Amino acid sequence: MTTVSAIPENLFNYSDTCTNGAEQVQTWVRNVLTPAVTAYQNGGGCVTAIDVDTAKQLAAAYYTDRDVRTVGQAFLQAGGVLVRGRNQPIHANEKTVNAAFTKLQTEAARQQTEAAHQVQINAGAALAKRLMGAKPVEVTGIIRELAKHGNDPYFSAGFYNNLDEQHIETAMAQGGIPALVSAYSSGVLDKKVYDSVNTRLARPIQNVRFAVNLQDHYMTAAQKLQFLNSIGANPVAARNFANNLTSGQLRQLFYGPASEIPGLRGSLTNALTVAMWQQSGQPQARALMHTVSDGLFGDGTPKLTHNQMQQLIGPLMEFYSAGISQSLVPPPGDDPIALRRWAEGLGRQNGQDLGLFLKAANETGDEHELMKSMIQGGYVNVLFMPTGILAPELLVGNIAFTAGVGAMQSLYSSEDPLTGLLDKLFPGGSHANTSLLNDRLAVGGLSLAVSSLISQGLVHPVGSDVPVKFGSDPVANAELVKKIMLNGDDYAAGQKDFQGHLPPSITDLTHGYRDLELGEVNDALGNPDYKPPE
Fold first, then answer.
1. Beta-bridge mates of residue 460
2. CB 174 within 8 A of CB 139
3. Residues in the chain with pLDDT < 50?
């Protein structure tokens, strides 16, 4: 558990001072700089749009400084009820602070969105009021009216936010699923709606349905699949669905009565994978992986049979592949010590995130059978499939992402997947099946890590300070990453520091990553009471 600390009052003072300063300079740009630039240009002068560039930089600084206040509020929330003097630090768990910060940002964005779309939200609420008081014969007409606004997420959100639980399912059962999925993409849906939908998705199928009473309207198996498939086809809706799904709700949906619906587990896993690609950063991606791992493979979950795991191994690999990609932390710069710690930290993090999944896969038995089923199902290069080309551009850039994907796929396409590419973690072939699964996930993360180093100009041949660079050809870029990964002793990352520490070779970084990653996986497989760190 990592502990962080801050003095909220200092953050508030900093934020208020800086945002106020940014507003004053923005006013100066509008009132002084822009007229001066315009007058100079009108007089025949040639000058770049320095006023526009300055305004953009000021806006970016303003929003960053405003977030500093939110960080202070997050520390106050994470610190709980405590007695402290003013201007005394709060010490809190980093994960708790990150969760509070994300919640505060989400709520602020929601309030802004609601204010901008209040007319549509109110109109949807008015239609919901009609449904709440409707006679059975009037329900179909009201849902038809809802369907006319199916492409308006804010109208749809206003509608569903103002229904009780039974009427939510009534609307879904009578044709309102497209509107509900649209509402999921709005970002203004109430938590009670998410919870109601999650609960009702997991309930047993009601085989007898009479449209005589509102209480008799229940979703069919086909409608539950329709909802999950529609969520999976709408990335923003999928993100909001997954981020409002607890591990307990996921467990009930995955293992409860509804799991008997053919295809439900696959549709659910696909929706979660689409959601993972939409996560906005490392804390959010890791939080979703933790929710899914705990929900599907944590304490108290049923053990999947070999046949069940065989059907799910490909989709689950896609989910965890996306998670590793989205949780990648950018390199810390060219400091050699920091780069070694970065690689080790990525390895440890990935091993922790994969532990419960690999433990569950290992316990299904039948060495190599799961990998064979992946090959037969077309999942040999499952990592970063086309759905994954919604690249984490903010982290490594699109060029680096594509190069990392290509290198990883090229490495595996030239090898026999049943013998494995890397050294086996376990001697004598024990756990070989799980080792192969882990190789594909771990090397996928490693290839992206190397790509991110190249994209920031940090990789160079040993003995040279000239960095290797990506070009415009994605195939050549992938081959460059592959070449560096296979010849790691010939390339280094970063620069020699003032204390004389030499830049680590790519082999050094690879070993640091792999040793920590495999150590976490080894712990998961060898410890019957294993739990991933909080």
1. 492
2. yes
3. 208-212, 214-215, 367-368, 370-397, 405, 407-432
